[in-house]
Design a protein that fits this description.
Layout (H helix, E strand, L loop, with lengths): L2 E2 L21 E4 L2 E4 L22 H5 L2 H5 L8 E6 L13 E6 L16 H10 L16 E6 L6 H5 L6 H13 L4 E4 L8 H12 L3 E5 L26 E7 L17 E4 L3 E4 L5 E4 L6 H18 L5 H10 L20 H6 L39 H17 L2 H14 L23
Parallel strand pairs: 1-8, 4-6, 4-7, 5-6, 7-8, 8-9, 9-10
Antiparallel strand pairs: 2-3, 11-12
Helix pairs in contact: 3-7, 5-6, 7-8
Length: 446
């Protein structure tokens, strides 16, 4: 099992079939504020069981999906979603669901296969949704398996008072359970501003078991929270050793101020206009108004699954290094508190050849020494390149990609760079159904 950063969810609102908006809520559990992801509430005017969205998720073209899929689609890898559960009967997820556990104790399915809140189902779809006719929804790792670790039911007052809302103890227990169940990747979409020993111990345990934990960096918008904090301070478990903390980019590939910035940010990924699976059984669009880090963490978890499938004999630290070292950034030698080491690029992470001279984070691979080469690549090229036929070609492609990064200057250039890469794959316009975005009230519209 492998360990990574945990995402920062907020207390959730009860999903009502007649509601068309989602809201973020915060819950103070004991002395520890835990943010739980806001789920969408849909109605007949929004998303429902019959909703099918023909457009592909915009993030897939930003994340080198077609190139990565020439090598692997994540077969053989299990990703644990520590969240509100996963609706296993959603048609996109039937073949992806690998069981799980319900730690909430509310009498729902013991294998975590129910989700009244919707957030866990959305994350699961980002990671491993299978294609259906008349639907463009597909996960970034569409042959990976999903393990549902249900740690909360909802955030409404009655549910919280009954003991079924977000709780730090259940979050820690969920991480441990996922590690013991053999998940190579653990996606945690919950976070706190407090350094809690119980969670730190759970992350350390998961790491020791071979799991990579992925988590969000937190979101600026604390609307309707009991516990509000928009400060750029570390979030946990994203800030623990061995966890990949993830911030969210917009559709131009730029990390905005909607994400919390800080030393806990290791990498970034798309977190806006997320087309994925709904807890009502169909498709839906989330976080349409602004990026949210819960969803960006979901895509990094999927990217990690692809890397793990391609390199099953490597360690979680080596998987994490592949993801961070090859991420798109304006300065190849530097991370920053907004995007970490840059925007994740799964194909480049898969084909990277570890060794001395690679620029960026310190390498855990034996015999590797990070550092700038004496002369950078002369000709800048785009990071998206053709699959290499052999090791030498792969190494050349990776070195050329580093040269491209040197030529890109500043955050604005980075946004243009990623934006241009996805223009060719822009989905045909069509009416879509919108669900409430995480951490905000997005009004559903046709």
């Amino acid at each position: 099992m492998r360990s990574a950063h945990a995402m920062s969810p907020r207390p959730l609102r009860r999903v009502a079939a007649a509601a068309c908006a989602a809201a973020l809520a915060g819950v103070l559990l004991g002395a520890v504020p835990v943010e739980a992801p806001a789920a969408s509430a849909q109605s007949s005017q929004g998303c429902n069981a019959a909703t099918r969205i023909g457009a592909a998720p915009p993030a897939l073209s930003m994340l080198q999906s077609e190139l990565a899929w020439t090598i692997t689609k994540g077969a053989g890898i299990t990703v644990a979603v520590v969240d509100s559960g996963v609706l296993a009967i959603n048609p996109h997820l039937v073949d992806a669901f690998a069981g799980g556990v319900n730690l909430v104790g509310d009498g729902q399915a013991p294998d975590g296969s129910t989700d009244v809140y919707g957030h866990g189902t959305a994350i699961a779809g980002q990671i491993a949704a299978r294609k259906l006719d008349a639907s463009g929804v597909e996960g970034l790792a569409p042959e990976a398996k999903i393990l549902s670790v249900r740690v909360f039911a909802s955030d409404d007052k009655q549910t919280v008072e009954a003991g079924f809302g977000p709780q730090i103890g259940k979050l820690a227990a969920g991480i441990r359970w996922a590690a013991d169940a053999g998940a190579q990747i653990i996606n945690v979409s919950m976070s706190t501003t407090d350094d809690v020993p119980e969670v730190a111990d759970a992350v350390s345990y998961a790491t020791s078991r071979g799991s990579l934990v992925i988590g969000s960096s937190g979101n600026r918008n604390n609307m309707l929270s009991f516990v509000q904090s928009d400060a750029d301070v570390p979030r946990y478990p994203a800030n623990y050793p061995g966890v990949l903390g993830v911030s969210a980019t917009d559709l131009q590939g730029v990390v905005t101020d909607d994400s919390i910035h800080g030393s806990h940010v290791a990498i970034a990924a798309p977190g806006q206009s997320i087309i994925t699976t709904s807890q009502l059984g169909g498709d839906c669009v989330y976080a349409d108004a602004a990026p949210a880090t819960s969803y960006s963490a979901g895509y990094v978890s999927a990217a990690a699954a692809l890397v793990a499938a391609a390199h099953p004999d490597e360690t979680p630290a080596e998987w994490a290094y592949r993801l961070t070292a090859t991420a798109v950034r304006s300065d190849p030698d530097t991370r920053d508190d907004r995007a970490g080491w840059g925007v994740v690029q799964p194909y480049d992470a898969i084909v990277m050849q570890p060794g001395p001279g690679l620029r960026g984070p310190a390498s855990p691979f034996p015999g590797s020494e990070a550092g700038a080469p004496e002369q950078p690549a002369a000709d800048p090229v785009t990071v998206v390149h053709k699959p290499a036929p052999d090791e030498e070609a792969i190494l050349f492609g990776t070195t050329a990609a580093v040269g491209a990064l040197i030529a890109i200057g500043g955050a604005g250039a980075l946004g243009v760079f990623v934006s241009r890469r996805r223009q060719a794959a822009t989905a045909a316009a069509q009416p879509v159904r919108h669900g409430g975005g995480l951490y905000r009230d997005d009004a559903p519209r046709d």
